[in-house]
Amino acid sequence: MNASTPLKPAVFHILLALADRDSHGYAVMQAVREQSGGRVPMPTGSFYRHLSKLLDGGLVAEAARKRADDDPRRGSYYRLTPLGQKVLASEKQRLTDLVAAMGGLKAIKKLQ
Amino acid sequence: MMRLYDLLLRAYPPAFRDRFGEGMRHALASDLARARSRGRVAAAMFWLITIWQAASLGLSARRAERRQRPHKFSPIPTSRGTSMQTFFSIDWRDALRSLRATPVITAAAVLSLALGIGANTALFTIFNSLLLKTLPVREPQQLAVLDDGSWTYPIWEQVKARGTMFDGVFAWSNFGIDLAPSGATDMVAGAFVSGRTFEVLGVSAQLGRTITPDDDVRGGGPGGPVAVISHGLWQKRYAGAGDVVGKPISVNRVKYSIIGVTPPEFFGTEVGRNVEVMIPFGTEPLLRPSALDARSTWWLEIFARLKPGQSLADATSALRGLQPLIRTATLPQDWSDSEKASYLKEPLTIVSAATGRSALRSRFEEPLNVIMAVVGLVLLIACANIASLLVARAVSRRHELSLRLALGASRWRISRQLVAESALMSIAGGAIGLAFAYWGSRMLVRQLTTSATNVVFLDLHFDWRVLGFTALVALMTTTIFGLAPASGTMRIQPNEVLRERGRGVAGDARFGLRNVLVVIQVALSLALVVAAALFGRTLSGLTTRQLGFVPDPVLTISLNAGKTGVPKDQFGPLFDQVVDAVKAVPGVANVGASFTTPVGNAAWNTRLEVPGMPEASSMRPAPWVNTVTPDWFATYGMTIVDGRSIEATDRIGTPKVAVVNQTFATRYFPGRRAVGARFKVDREADDIEIVGVVADAVYRSLRADMAPTIFFAQDQQPAGRDLMLSVRAAGGSPGALTRSIADAIGRVNPLIAMTFRPLSDQIGASLVQERLVATLSGFFGALALMLAGLGLYGVTSHAVSRQRAEIGIRMALGARPAGIVAMVLRRTSWLVGIGVIAGAALSFWGATYLKTLLYGVQPRDLLTFVGAGAVLIAVGLVAAWLPARRAAKVEPTTALRSS
After folding, report:
1. Are B50 and A26 an interchain contact pair (Cβ–Cβ within 8 Å)?
2. Is pLDDT at B475 greater than 90 in this prediction?
3. Pairing of strands B753-758, B554-560
4. Which residues make beta-bridge pairs with B305?
5. Which CATH number fits domain A9-111: 1.10.10.10, 1.20.810.10, 1.10.760.10, 1.25.40.10?
6. What's the number of domains chain B is made of?
7. Given CB atoms, is A73 within the 8 Å cutoff of chain B?
8. Complex prediction ipTM
9. Which of B24, B28, B34, B67 to mutate to test the interface with A (most CBs of A within 10 A)?
10. Which residue of chain A has the CA closest to B51?
């Protein structure tokens, strides 16, 4: 996995959702759909392709199950690794810088 | 049950599936449930996205995996490769690239294939669910039923007492249940079940418990009358509430309590009917005059579960051993001796019930067969079309292919690529066809549902049979249309590449093949157009038939006073009050009461004794009977042609009178006046006098000829608890009156159960089969015409483009454009002509099989045949004229230069 930024929006959203809390696949998908306001539709196939790349790249790892009473049919739980947190933080910084840079431009104001 | 997405998951590599399979299945199931709750479009989008993702992401995941895997050996590709791997390895990417190079042809081919496969799969899905699927119960193969049809309760009690000869027995009787506590009825499908029904079926409650033998005692068990409801009803009416167990439910205005919910896949024992409420036989006396002890009321089915190893023949012989005991103990006492003797003799037989029972099977078997044949023909036409397109493609690729041959590719390898292209199209067509079938089958089944009480329910989930069928059809089509172009490559010579292109005029074998394909298409299309026209004329004949009454705007109301608490002898006065109350409702023009309504659910016929006529001839056909009030004829706009109508003075105590229809009058009193004549009915002592003759009208079936009909005075009959009201509205839609009429009847007695239905609805529902067949055959006939037109267009324009040089020379030598057009048309006319003749012969032979489905038109109707032929010739001419006109516009010099 090439951990260099910029990240794809879908990947960014997955990391963001996992930063919040460890959870199982479908919960992450739902969180992505919600926090993107539906702009990232995140169908199942795409999600697991991204997830497999994130796992291979060491940004995400399987987590121990949180609650004993949880339904095992939901599949594994996932968490953000320290590397994943670092990548997310740097992406966040990059986006913040971008927004700050845009704020300084007059041209953008005209556009609005 | 196999889920479609389990199958789709297989597109992903095994390692990927091991790692994420569980999570993905959960996510897909959750998304599917969500999409379904948002409606059909959302569900369709879900499937489209999921199928697409499985195809694209699954394959890319597989490729990524393969890249990571170290190569054990590196095969050197040779044109004469002998290792098994190279023998079977197909370059899919090459095939895909070459299909993309001709997007229009590919899209046309895939689309016609998807329509063909989709239509076939949709029909097969219905077939599968109606005829092949086993009931969703434990070991359905062991389930058996006492042939044939229905039995009396005393017989069931006898079988139950001897139930140990099987692994278990139970009884089942379908029964419409009204859930409304008062006012207008709210009908759902229900059933009486015996105590061990669920135990023997092997169905356990999803919530609460099922009915047990303790509940099935006369008058209800210790907990009072109880009911088990279906998963669907639980979701719809109780929003899946967890505390539904113990809640009261009104069953035909009697309070029952809910004890449990059945699992979602359980729908009862009859395919086509989804039972929502199940109650014990023991509570039947609470709901109606009991039939539990009636020895000649046949109303229930007896099922048995065979012991392990027990065959149907074993079970039958075990039962036959006990037959004398069972038959003697249940002998109807009031039957004649000969009837008793045949009752004792009639052998009991056990047949398999693994796929349940179904009334739908016999009702729709014939039309479904016809439609299946129609969609089969459409698929053949689509195949012919695609084969034709591919041959054209192969011909225009001769240069490329011969170049490859010259460079050393083997013919086998080239053929393989062509087959791979066909296979890719088949897979794409099959996948889109599956989605199309998913909607198509559901849409079809919705068309079969004619009213709230007659909801047709079929389990239309794809199972291995449907997927296997689709795969088989796709494979078959690949073979049919893939071999044609592949066989063509066998004749290509490597040195063709050296020859000049485009000058070839004559002697092309593949053209011969295309011509044959076009002729076949035209012939098959003609057959479909003929069938569509015959069915269309049948439907229009039935809808425009002279009914003898004016159906609009009449509203029918079925009344039942069984639960009003009014004593039996007071039903008459109660209904009189109801009629008066309805008459007073604003917007009501006429109100008539009767035993049944035209094209209704109930029918009554009778034996007749007419003085001077032998009994046998007066029986066939037995005349229909209805009882009517004085205003009834006016409500239906039926005119009295002789004598008088039924009048208010015809009450109990006055001499019995009848009005008969014209058919009755001419049949029983030929050559003399019927009014004033007398006859006897069904061993009754009284003579009945005919006081009037009314114009003929349809009684029950729109297909039947006008039949002799007798109308008795409603008020001269003892009043029952059921009555049909017919209300003619003063104007506008009769449905708008429903509310105020319900209120008016409710004010007379709130416990009268009533069911409203506009008469036009009822007439429409009686034509559902004809409408379905006409619509579908019309749709597919049009599709076939379009495909045939496309095929003709393709073959003509291809021929014209090959003849550019020749046409250029002709025009340079002085040929006129009109002459060129005529030349091209002549050629196409031949093809169409042969096709039409072949098609006419095919239809002439096939149409006789449609005879039973037709009305008012002969299967070999000349006008239909001529019309269909004319339509095909017109389509053929248009399809040929477009390229012909283009050819005639060619500048001779350009044509010659460009070749």
Report:
1. no
2. no
3. antiparallel
4. B143, B168
5. 1.10.10.10
6. 4
7. yes
8. 0.85
9. B24
10. A45
